[in-house]
# Entry
Amino acid sequence: MAEHRATLGIDLHLAPTGPGLRRGLTDALREAVRTGRLTPGTRLPSSRSLAADLGIARNTVADAYADLVAEGWLTARQGSGTRVADRAVPRPPARPAAPRRVPGRPRYDLLPGTPDLASFPRAAWLKATRRALAAAPNDAFGYGDPRGRPELRTALADYLARVRGVRADPERLVVCSGFAHGLHLVCAALHARGARTLAVESYGLDIHWDLVERTGLRTVPLPFDDLGTRAQSPGDADAVLLNPAHQFPLGGALVPERRAAAVDWARRTGGLVLEDDYDGEFRYDRQAVGALQDLDPDHVVYLGTASKSLAPGLRLGWMVLPPSLVPEVVAHGGGRSVGVLDQLTLAEFLTSGAYDRHVRAARLRYRRRRDALVEALATRAPDVRVTGIAAGLHAVLRLPPGTEPSVVRAAAWHGLAVHGLARYRHPAAGGARADALVVGYATPPDHAWASTLEALCRALP
# Structure
């Protein structure tokens, strides 16, 4: 039985042109090699396979190959097939680039927002992937529920209720590809409802503010004082975005009275509170602050992510939504943005207890780093006050007034990548400006932590 062409050899796109099949094929192959479309070492289909694909005689292909081998464009060896020869492809001479100074790469990374990527639980994750793949039903690899796989939504609902105090029904939970994606979906749904303004904290991430404004909403900063953000009176805002458990970058937790006041505002006006549970699992000195969502699940959108607990490259996040918002958010996208195998793996990681074990180990490791940071500063820079250290993956180093720019420059001279607090201030924020460094202590590898602290202390006043 003749083999169907779909079962033969290696695919190669060619369009022979010119008089005669042999010459046209030879010219097309030569041009593909000459222009670099077929790179040196590329294996070509067998003469039989290419003849079947092009619908021509096998001898025509063999003769074309022989011509190009004789010219040096191709090579043919017994057992290795026909390959593109290792010859220089003519290129136009490059214009000399103008000399420019390239800044040195920082030796020490103290930028906040990234966990210790070297501690990603590769072996445990691989085991979970194998178990999840073996147990997955066939229909798991179809389009599925746009909210995300039911295995993951159920596992997340149980975990969030147990660890964060979230009232999470799997039917109201939507999987997304990280916090930024979830924020975009919610804001797009709110804009479609007619919302126009989102109140945000005076200090935060400009990438989130820009993302919100691209959905059509305007961002306005909330006032703040020594007790943190005053969210009880957000003016004419339709919703507010808060980090109540561990504010980024200032590091404090929203006091109970202001948590309750924010929810009271949402009930009274019909507004929504968007809760960013930023690194809420990493609390060191006391019991973790529970989720704000528990106060009123119908007026609080809970957003979480595995970016800090596992790794941002997984692109795994989740939202627990008020019932009325679920269909609107799903209409703008949702669980289908995340690969099904990653969803099933995370579900297995959660239900097997591997996630809890990893978070506990990471919490201990980060606490040791935080303690070493505090101890080094107490010894080497006693005038620098450290705040925001009860939780999370970063600390705020309060500086004398007016010294932040010079300290950031000094840090760069000492090979440190670190941001000043001003980097995170909303352009329209009022109130007094504080001078500080925002130091992420999760990223540097363990073997470089002591030298990183040494460089930081040398840069401080």
The chain has a mean pLDDT of 90. Residues 275 and 302 are 5 Å apart (CA to CA).
